[in-house]
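Recall that a protein's primary structure is simply its ordered list of amino acids. Everything else, from secondary elements to tertiary packing, is in principle encoded there. The following example makes that idea concrete.
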Amino acid sequence: MAAASAAARGQRVLLLEKNKKLGVKILMSGGTRCNITHDCDVKSIVSAFGRQGKFLHSALSALPPKEVIQKIESQGVETKIESTGKIFPVSNKAIDVRDALVNLALTAGATIKPEQTVLEIRKTGNQFQIETQTDHLECDALIITTGGKSYPGCGTTGDGYQWGQQFGHSIIDTVPALVPILNDCKWANDLKGITIEHTSVDIWQPEQNTGDSEVLTKSERKARKSRSLVNRDGSFLFTHWGFSGPAILDVSRAVARHPNRRSLELICDFYPQLSVGQLEESLRNKKTRNGKQQTGNLLNELFPKRLAESLIQSANIELESRNAELSKSQFSALVNQVKRCRFSINGTLGFEKAEVTAGGINLKEIDSKTMQSKTMPGLYFAGEVLDLDGPIGGFNFQSAFSTGWLAGLSAARDTD
C-alpha cells in the first residue's frame, strides 16, 4: 500500500522484500483466507484499538475500510462480508488478496525486488544509504514497513526496531498478541478440536486464593469483575496444549504483557446466552422432568457430548448417576462449571504462533498526520512495526493498509 500510494504520485519507488515469496504473512492469515478488514466505519476501527486508536484518525481518513475494499476489488478480487463482520475474498484464497496488492503497486509504477535482505541503513546528508547483500541504494525518503516479531519464520524478525533505535526512536516492549494460551488441565486438553461458537472469557488476576466453587451472587461477580484484566466474547477452541479461537486470541495480550502470567486465571462462561439464574431454572426443570435419566445427559442440549460429559465430571458428578440423585451442592458446582469454569494459565505459545506483535516504535515519536519520524526527516514508519495492535477481525490489516497508504502519500509529497 505504501509503495502503491507513493508511486501513484509519480515518484520512483522501490520495494525491498526480504523473502523470495511476497506477502507471506498475508498468505497465512485468516486460515489462508485473509481477513482483509472489518465491515464498520472509521469510528469503530478507532474504538477497537483502544488507547492507540486516536493515532489512526489521519491514516483512516486517507484510506478507510470501504476504500481498501474498492482497491482490492479493482484488481478483480470479489469480497464478501461474513456474519461476524469480517471481510474475506469470495474465493476464500489469501493469495488473491496478496496478488491484488502486488498488482496495485506494480500498476502504479513501483518496482519490487524480492530476496533483498537489508544489511545496513545510514543517513548521509539528505539521503538514506541502504546496503543489501547485492546492492547499494540511495533514496530521499525511506518507509519502514517490516512488521513485528510474530511468526518469525515469515521473515518478521524485528529488523525495523533496530533501525528505529538507530535513528533515535524508543521501542515499547514487544510481546506476542492474538496468540493461543497454554494450560495443562487434562480434561480440557483431551477435548482438542472442539469449538464453541459463543463463549465469554475473562482474564482474572486473583487478589487472594478464595478456593470457592459455588455459583457467585451478583455482588460477588461484580466484585470479581473489578479484578478482571480483560473480557471478550467469541468462538472458543480447545487444543491439546490449551485454548485458542477468537475469544482467546483477543485476551492473550493481557496474559503476555503480565509480569506473573502463572498467577492469572482464565474464567470461561461457556453458555453466555443464559444468566446464572436462567441456566439454573432450565437445568432444574430438566432435572425434575427427567429424574430417572442419567446425569451424563443433562447438558447434551447445550454442548457437544464430549464437552457436556467433561463439564459434568469436572464438577465431581458421576455420569451414571441419576438426575434425581443430584445434591444441591453438586447442582451448584455443575452450574458453576458452565458459567465460571476456571483454568490456570501457563503462558502463551509466544511469537512463533502469534498473529500480531504488541509494542514497537513509540507512537509519540511519529507524526500521525504523515507517518513521518519526529526524530529523522525523510524517515517514515507504517504497519505492525509501530506500537499498534488491535483485536481479531481484520482490524490489524486495516491499520497496516491505512498507515502504509498515508506514509506513501506523505513521503511522495515531501520529496516532490
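The first strand starts at residue 14 and ends at 16. The chain has a mean pLDDT of 94.
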